[in-house]
Amino acid sequence: SSGINAEYGGLYKECPAGTYIGASDCIDCPIGYYTATASQSSCTQCSGAKSTVSIGSASASDCIDVCTVPTATFSSSMSPLAGTNVAAGSTVTTSCQNGYYINGQSTHTETCASSLTSCRTVTTTIGQNGYYTAGSNVQLTCTVVSGDAPALSSAIICSWTKGGSSLTSTSQFSAHSTAANTYECVHSLTGVSSSDSATYSCSAVIGSYTEAAVSTATLTVLTLTYDATQKVEKLGASVQLTCAVNMPTALSAILSFEWERDSGKITSGIVSDSYGTSRDSVLTLSPLAATDTAKYKCLATYSNIGTITSSEKQVVVVYIASAVASVQATTGAAHTFTCDTYGTAQTITWTLPDSSTNAGTETASTTTDGIKHTTNELRLSSLSSANNGAYVCTGSNTG
Predict the structure, then answer these.
(1) Is residue 207 over pLDDT 80?
(2) 104-160, pLDDT tens digit by residue?
(3) CB of 105 within 8 A of CB of 93?
(4) Nearest Cα to 20, choosing from 11, 30, 10?
(5) Three-state DSSP state, 90
(6) What is the mean pLDDT of residues 242-268?
């Protein structure tokens, strides 16, 4: 039936259970309220902590223990929608998006609670775009972004793989970054070499779930090749020293070479090849002088990355430092010829006027940085005309 509802000033209409009489129409009871009979002017609120799961409840039995689906965070959506009341014990599905996951899956279903598992993303990064010079110290960073409570950080443990194989080292959460809900695990590599060049990836155990990194990071160690074995050569000869490095095509850096001799810079005799993925620099010493005996090293510098310094290479120039001077002597007198040689492990012999040889007598020998200085004397006594002629000192060096 219908008519004028004088009390409420509107159209009279019988409003069914689950609604109440409005000014001009029947209005559903809101969530948490009900009407068990028709034509009620107001709804009855559920007792205690109980509520209803939807509007328009028509019975006190609709008042149950409920769970309100929490707000979605970190690139996710909820089903049922956030803010919806569901019966306590019901399940809720979180759908992760944009590279976020829960236990490696893009969707996750669990029992509704005031706080649900957050979608997470894990990334692996290496500084400097992954390029480091040999000998550098490198930090691999596993970054975890998760909406879970900060207290969860104590339960974050990262593990690492290198080229797909597990590394024995694991690193626990080490720092909570300034960005909210972002955590970092760091794995350190000390004094990297070419064997450390590889693709690295991390995974993070966060509470009861393991999340694999959505990205990998490639470490490329820039190395230098240089033969640092000692080089022995005679006075006036030529020596070439070659220093080579790798230059990946994807690396946008300026490469420059330098050479040093006994820690002093060399400015001449250098030719560098600046093309290709393997680049080198050649230092030519010619003709060798006694002053070229020194330790040589090469330095290769990549702009914005660093410098690789080679080991030192000892160049030894072998020579006779003092010539055998001509002499006039009287019969019966004595004379000593002296021969000073520099080099390595010399064997010194004397050629006499009668074409025979004599080893002479070594009176002094010192070795400094692999360079041997030897003083050898040929002693003659009771001189006679038979001793007239040319005396030649010969120093033979190994190598």
Answers:
(1) no
(2) 899 999 999 988 888 888 888 887 678 999 999 998 888 888 876 455 555 677 888
(3) no
(4) 30
(5) coil
(6) 90
d(CA 162, CA 387): 78
Flag whether pLDDT at 4 surpasses 50: no
Helix (H) or strand (E) holding 234: strand 231-234
Closest CA to 293 of 347, 243, 237, 348: 237
CB distance 317 to 234 below 8 Å: yes
What would the mean pLDDT of 313-328 be, rounded to a whole number? 83
User: Which pLDDT score is estimated for 169?
Assistant: 62
At 202, list the tokens. Answer: 């991390």
The two three-digit tokens of residue 394, written as one number:
């010969």
| Mean local confidence (pLDDT), 88-99 | 92
Mean pLDDT for the stretch of residues 275-283 = 83
Rounded to an integer, what distance in angstroms lies between the CA atom of residue 226 and that of residue 312? 9
Residue 287, preceding peptide bond in cis (omega within 30° of 0): yes
Cis status of the peptide bond prior to 80, with omega within 30 of 0: yes
Distance CA 393, CA 347 (A): 10
Owner of token pair 């330790």: 295
- How far apart CA 348 and CA 319 sit, in angstroms, is 12
The pTM of the full predicted model, rounded to 2 decimals, is 0.69
In terms of Cβ atoms closer than 10 Å to its own Cβ (0-12, 13-18, 19+), residue 281 is buried
pLDDT at 2: 43
Taking the CA atoms of residue 206, residue 212, residue 215 and residue 219 in that order, the dihedral angle to the nearest 10 degrees is 90
Instruction: Dump the DSSP string for 163-217.
Output: TTEEEEEEEE--EE-SSTTEEEEEEEE-S--GGG-EEEEEEEEETTEEEE-S--E
